C-alpha cells in the first residue's frame, strides 16, 4: 500500500463544490458540516493528477476518442479486481451511471412498462423510472439482524407481475451490503425464469471493504451475462465524479445495440478528453491508492461505530461491507423524520441525507458520508451527539 496521509483536511469551500458550497441551498444553512452527498474529501490518486497535468501541457483540446490503452486498462482492471473477463466490444461509455440507467430504461422498455427496484435504495432509481413514465414496482428489503436481506418470495411475485427490467444496486446504497454469490445466483435464476433484464448499478464495486469481495452479477455465468447490463465507474472509487465518466458493459449485442441507438438519438458523442485521461490513469495506476483508501475508510467505519455505541446507544449503524456511507438506524429515538432532520441541522449543525430519500424502509434512518479525514469525522460525530442528546 502507498504511504498517504489521508488525515490532511483539504478546504473545498469556494470551489463550486456541491457538497460544501451547495449545502446552504440544499439544507437552508451555509454553516452546516456537510456529510451528505457521496463524494469523498480526499485528494484523487497521484496517478490521476499527474496524467491530467501532463495532458493539459499539450495546448490543443480537440475532439478525442478512447485509446486502445484505455480499453486495455478497463479489461485488465475487471480481470484483476473482480475476476471478470470482458472484451473491448462489450464496453460503451456514459457520462454517469444515472444517465446510463435512464438510457437503459428508454432503450429496453416502453411507456407504462413495469420496472422493479429494492428500497431503500439510491434515489435516482425511483426518479429514472417515474420520469420516464414507467411503472415503479418495489421489492422492499428486509432488515434482519442489523443488515438487509432480500425477500425472494416477494421478489418472484413481483417479477411475475409483468416486470420488464430489474434495477439492481450492487453493492447496495445506502446499506453497504455486498451481495453474496448465493444471493446473486438466486436473483439471476429468477430473472431468467421470468424473462427480466437486469440493469446492475455497480458503481461502489471497487470499494468493497476487506474481507468482503464484490462479485459482478454478469460474471457468474454466460447465461447471466446475457440478460445483464452492468454500469460501473471510477467516480466514487477515485473521487473524480466531477469529470463525469462511467462504463457500460454487456456481452449481449442486441441489448447494447438498443442502448447505443438511444445514445445516438440523444446526441451522446463520447466522453471529454479529461474524463478519458483520468479513467485510464485510475485503472492503470490507482490500485495501491485504492487499497490504502479502503483500509482508511474501514477504520473510519469502525471508529464511527465505536463512538455511536458508546455515546449514542439508542442509534445503531449498519456497518458497510462496501463504500464510505454509514446507514444509521435512529428509530429508537421515536422521532418523526421531520423532527430528526431538524435536530440534526438546527441543533447539531450537521447535514446528513434523510432516510426518506431512499424510499419505503428508509424512515427513521439517516446516511452519513464517512469518506473524509478522521478530524472531520470526529467533528461530525460530536455534532451528531449534540443534536440527539
TrEMBL record:
Cofactor: pyridoxal 5'-phosphate
Domain Aminotransferase class I/classII large per the UniProt entry, residue ranges: 43-384
Signal peptide: none
Alphabetical UniProt keywords: Lyase, Pyridoxal phosphate
GO MF annotations in UniProt: lyase activity
Top-tier EC class: lyase
Cross-referenced InterPro entries: Aminotransferase_I/II_large, C-S_lyase_PatB-like, Class-II_PLP-Dep_Aminotrans, PyrdxlP-dep_Trfase, PyrdxlP-dep_Trfase_major, PyrdxlP-dep_Trfase_small
Entry EC no(s): 4.4.1.13
Annotated family: Belongs to the class-II pyridoxal-phosphate-dependent aminotransferase family. MalY/PatB cystathionine beta-lyase subfamily.
Protein name in the entry: cysteine-S-conjugate beta-lyase
Amino acid at each position: 500500500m502507498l504511504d498517504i496521509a489521508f488525515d490532511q483536511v483539504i478546504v473545498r469551500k469556494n470551489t463550486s463544490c456541491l457538497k460544501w458550497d451547495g449545502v446552504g441551498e440544499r439544507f437552508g444553512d451555509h454553516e452546516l458540516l456537510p456529510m451528505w452527498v457521496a463524494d469523498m474529501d480526499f485528494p484523487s490518486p497521484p496517478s490521476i493528477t499527474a496524467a491530467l497535468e501532463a495532458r493539459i501541457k499539450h495546448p490543443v483540446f480537440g475532439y478525442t476518442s478512447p485509446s486502445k490503452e484505455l480499453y486495455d486498462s478497463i479489461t485488465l482492471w475487471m480481470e484483476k479486481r473482480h475476476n471478470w473477463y470482458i472484451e473491448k466490444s462489450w464496453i460503451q461509455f456514459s457520462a454517469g451511471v444515472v444517465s446510463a440507467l435512464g438510457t437503459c430504461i428508454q432503450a429496453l422498455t416502453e411507456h407504462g412498462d413495469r420496472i422493479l427496484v429494492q428500497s431503500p435504495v439510491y434515489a435516482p432509481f425511483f426518479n429514472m423510472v417515474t420520469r420516464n413514465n414507467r411503472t415503479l414496482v418495489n421489492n422492499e428489503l428486509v432488515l434482519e439482524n442489523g443488515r438487509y436481506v432480500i425477500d425472494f418470495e416477494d421478489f418472484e411475485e413481483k417479477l411475475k407481475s409483468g416486470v420488464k427490467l430489474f434495477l439492481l444496486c450492487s453493492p447496495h446504497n445506502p446499506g453497504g451490503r455486498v451481495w453474496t454469490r448465493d444471493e446473486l445466483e438466486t436473483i439471476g435464476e429468477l430473472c431468467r425464469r421470468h424473462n427480466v433484464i437486469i440493469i446492475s448499478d455497480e458503481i461502489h464495486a471497487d470499494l468493497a471493504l476487506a474481507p468482503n469481495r464484490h462479485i459482478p452479477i454478469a460474471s457468474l455465468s454466460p447465461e447471466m451475462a446475457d440478460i445483464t447490463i452492468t454500469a460501473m465507474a471510477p467516480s466514487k472509487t477515485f473521487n473524480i465524479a466531477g469529470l463525469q465518466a462511467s462504463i457500460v458493459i454487456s456481452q449481449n449485442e442486441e441489448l447494447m445495440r438498443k442502448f447505443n441507438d438511444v445514445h445516438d438519438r440523444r446526441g451522446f458523442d463520447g466522453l471529454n478528453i479529461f474524463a478519458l485521461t483520468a479513467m485510464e490513469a485510475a485503472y492503470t495506476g490507482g490500485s495501491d491508492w485504492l487499497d490504502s483508501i479502503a483500509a482508511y475508510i474501514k477504520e473510519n467505519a469502525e471508529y464511527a461505530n465505536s463512538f455511536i455505541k458508546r455515546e449514542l446507544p439508542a442509534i445503531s449503524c449498519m456497518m458497510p461491507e462496501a463504500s464510505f456511507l454509514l446507514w444509521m438506524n435512529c428509530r429508537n429515538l421515536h422521532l418523526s423524520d421531520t423532527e430528526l432532520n431538524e435536530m440534526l441541522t438546527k441543533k447539531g449543525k450537521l447535514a446528513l441525507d434523510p432516510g426518506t430519500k431512499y424510499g419505503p424502509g428508509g424512515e427513521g434512518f439517516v446516511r452519513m458520508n464517512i469518506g473524509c479525514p478522521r478530524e472531520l469525522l470526529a467533528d461530525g460525530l460530536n455534532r451528531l451527539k449534540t443534536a440527539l442528546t
